[in-house]
Amino acid sequence: MSQYKTYTELTDFGPYITKLILELPCQVKEHELTTNTFHVYAESREADGSIVIRKDRKTGFETQLKGYPQILAAYPCDSDGRRTRSGSFAALELCEEYLNKRVAGNVMASRWLENFYRITQLQDLPGQENGSAVNGLVFDTCSGDVCPQLAGWQDGISKHPTLPLQYGYFTPDCSEKAPLVVWLHGAGEGGNTVKIAYTGNKVTAISAPDIQKKLGGAAWVLVPQCPTVWMDDGVEQLGRSNRSIYTEPLKALIDEFIAQHKELIDEKRIYIGGLSNGGFMTVRMLLDYPGFFAGAIAVCTPFFVENITEQVAQTLKTVPLWLVHCKKDSIVLPMETAIPLYQRLKAAGAENIHFTLFDRVIDLSGRYREPDGRSRESFGHGVWIHAYNDDCTVDWDGMRVLEQGLPVTMWEWLGCQSK
User: Are residues 313 and 347 in the same domain?
Assistant: First the structure.
């Protein structure tokens, strides 16, 4: 039996294994590999080794998550899956389907899955030194994973005496001081598996070259994970008190992280942002620690209208803030949260506040299509897809947001903020 490696991609819809990398006992050329050269069987397993049970949302029918994933392409590659004209490794490209997903769950809870593959050779490969064909290869042991999007990422845990928080963080390739982006996950990425906090959706877009450049060329990224949800007020986990037991432990973590990297973090450019539950916590932290953050992004934030007091408005009106929401969000209704928050802040005299309100969440990249060819539409709460892809460019009135007279995207705008 032989070993294979997985290749994970963090996509708009979560982390997927999009390639299998096989080490071959011979050299192969491009024309010698096809989608029929190998056959793939897959199982998604829970942490205890049992096969994942998937329940269809529409029919309620339950099935075991096992089967035969589609092979989209096969070609020679290097040991990290990069395509080559010839070589002793083969890449099998897989599509984004449930069999290849690395995280299962919903907007309230997620768990990391173990993906098992068995790859069987169906067609002979030439290339043996004695002229004989290579056949009978079977790959059923995973020797590791390749995920280029996680380059520069590490894990840690804070030293808080009563509520230590796990976190992931990205270290930029920079010898000078750079801003810090504190990014807060949604309810579905809490718990005690810290990698879910920054891989459960495409948080690593913040560490990718495009957004790094927009943040000034380089930026630290800190992604804390809370054990429950950020909205946990000690009585209810998802109530409407707009309070949190995590404000002080989170601030302690941020302070600790800055102190550890004091020579390389620009303390005039500490940014905070987050989605859904993390969007709530973004606003909560701005209120509890006024003057600390240089700018903020709050995506589909459940900060409820009854708690938007005059004191809240007066505190928030001086903070550069960009709100993002979708009209079709049925989980966090914008008319109960982001819309009144924006309106109250504008009425209070806020000058550096912006609000991008999407009609719907629809793929703008051209990558995802419905069966009939239309761009794929996602559920309205998933507006973070547009935030990570930096699709936010217009304000509440539909006009482009300007910074120093020039049109900017949301991440460009954030990179311009400084105390």
Answer: yes
CA distance 130 to 189: 54
User: For residue 170, what is the domain's CATH number?
Assistant: 3.40.50.1820
| Residues 122 and 186 placed together within one structural domain of the fold | no
Q: How far apart are CA 20 and CA 11, in angstroms?
A: 17
My answer on whether 129 and 164 are in the same domain is: no
Identify the domain containing residue 391 by its residue range.
151-415
Q: Residues 324-328: what's their mean pLDDT?
A: 98
359 backbone dihedrals φ, ψ, rounded to 5°: -70, -40
The predicted pLDDT at position 1 comes to 64
Number of domains observed in the structure of the chain: 2
Given a cut of 90, is residue 248 above it in pLDDT? yes
- Could you tell me if 224 and 282 lie in one domain? yes
Computed over every residue of the chain, the mean pLDDT equals 95
Question: Mind listing the pLDDT tens digit for each residue in 198-209?
Answer: 999 899 999 999
Residues 253-294: tens digit of each pLDDT? 999 999 999 999 999 999 999 999 999 999 999 999 999 999
pLDDT over 80 (residue 56):
no
Helices 247-260 and 277-288, packing angle to 10 deg = 80
Q: Looking at residue 130, what is its pLDDT?
A: 64
Cα angle, residue 202 at apex, residues 71 and 55 outer, rounded to 5°: 60
- 64-78: buried (b, 16+ CB within 10 Å) or exposed (e) per residue? ebeeebebeebbbbe
* pLDDT for position 106: 81
Residues 247 and 387 both lie in one domain: yes
Q: Which of 110, 129, 149 is at the close of a domain?
A: 149
Q: Which residues of 398-409 are buried (b: 16+ CB within 10 A; e: fewer)?
A: eeebeeeeeebb
DSSP characters for 233-271?
Answer: -SS-SS-SS---TTHHHHHHHHHHHHHHTTTTEEEEEEE
Q: Which of 115, 149, 183 is the last residue of a domain?
A: 149
Give the model confidence (pLDDT) of 139-155 as tens digits. Answer: 999 999 999 999 999 99
Phi, psi for residue 291 in degrees, rounded to 5:
85, -5
CATH number of the domain bearing residue 108: 2.60.40.2180
Q: Which residues of 172-207 are buried (b: 16+ CB within 10 A; e: fewer)?
A: beeeebbbbbbbbbbbbbbbebbbbbbbbbbbbbbb
DSSP, collapsed to helix, strand or coil, labels residue 210 as helix
Single out the residue of 123, 109, 257 nearest to residue 192, CA to CA.
109
